[in-house]
Amino acid sequence: MAEPPSERLTAYVAALPKQWCDITEDEEEPSPWSAGPLIESASGPLMYFGMAWSRAEEALTYAADVADSMGLICFDVQENRLRP
I need a labelling partner for 33 at 20 to 30 A (CA). Which of 3, 9, 59, 76 fits? Predict the structure, then answer.
């Protein structure tokens, strides 16, 4: 069984849809997230979530900026590096 997401990660997940909705709520503007609800991708202090390839750079930049503003670390598995 997966560990419940940490409080900090739960706050991060809650902040992400302020730019784009969760894909499960995709109504007007298409969401860049490829799975949802986003919180289901979180466990303990980690989160792994996919993005639509066509919007990945835009979404990753946003996700990394939000993580940084909250004192979290964002690791890009495609680039094998931390995102500033």
Answer: 3
What does the CA dihedral 51, 56, 61, 65 come to, rounded to 10 degrees? 0
Q: What is the largest CA-CA distance in the chain?
A: 35
User: How far apart are alpha carbons 2 and 62 in whole angstroms?
Assistant: 26
Task: Give the span between the Cα atoms of 8 and 26, in whole angstroms.
Answer: 25
Q: What is the pTM of this model?
A: 0.83
Distance, CA of 36 to CA of 50 (rounded, Å): 9
Can you tell me which residue has the tokens 């500033």? 84
Question: What does the pLDDT look like over 5-62, one tens digit per residue?
Answer: 999 999 999 998 888 877 787 666 678 888 888 888 899 999 888 888 888 888 899 9
